[in-house]
Amino acid sequence: MSDADTKLLERAIDEASRKKSHYYYSAALEARVVAASEATHTITIEFTAVDSISSAGYLDEGFVGTVADYWTSVLISAVNQGRQSVTTTLTVQTLGRIVHGEKVHVICTTKANDGVPGATAVFASADDRRIVYAVVVHTKFFKALRQ
């Protein structure tokens, strides 16, 4: 991992440690940042699918939306020097069946957010990223600074 990637990873972990959000079904899930790329403004989160988030054979949409909102917000803030933003839309699509115990990577990507910040989160198999369980598109706007 390059120095720039390591710094983005550290900023993402720092942002996450200061957020007061809680995961949906948080008691049963451990998620961690496993990779970062400054060049593509991407962070990758890993968790293991458990019964409480995949009982119907698909990832629960509420869980997917909550995790994507949390981590894409962390990424947007980390890429934009801590600048805070507010969600305008969050679109969740569950796509593929999942097996309990499957390791999942949440690949969160944002662009240089000079105007309207936005990000995507792809929930894919950690072993084969061509296997996609869910996709989320997240748009936001930056909070105005009061003087």
How would you characterize the overall build of this protein?
The chain has helices at 3-18, 51-54, 61-79, and strands at 32-37, 42-48, 85-94, 103-110, 118-125, 132-142. The model has no long low-confidence stretch (mean pLDDT 86). It has a six-stranded antiparallel β-sheet with strand order 1-2-4-5-6-3. It has a single domain, classed as Hotdog Thioesterase (Thiol Ester Dehydrase, Chain A), CATH 3.10.129. The protein is globular, with a radius of gyration of 15 Å. The longest helix is centred in the middle third of the chain and has 19 residues, at 61-79. Helix 1 packs across helix 3 (61-79). The chain has 147 residues and is of the alpha+beta class. This is Thioesterase domain-containing protein. It comes from Coemansia spiralis.
Shape: globular
Radius of gyration: 15 Å
Top CATH class: Alpha Beta
Biggest β-sheet description = 6 strands, antiparallel
Query: Which sequence of SSEs, written as H and E, runs from N to C?
Result: HEEHHEEEE
Tally of individual domains: 1
Helix content: 25-40%
Q: How many H/I helices?
A: 3
Low-confidence stretches: none
Rounded mean pLDDT is: 86
Spatial order of strands in the largest sheet: 1-2-4-5-6-3
N-to-C CA distance: 40 Å
**CATH architecture tag:** Roll
Strand content: 25-35%
Q: What oligomeric state is this? A: single chain
Query: Strand pairing plus helix content: what structural class?
Result: alpha+beta
Please identify which CATH superfamily we are dealing with.
Hotdog Thioesterase
The count of strands amounts to 6
- Please name the CATH topology: Thiol Ester Dehydrase, Chain A
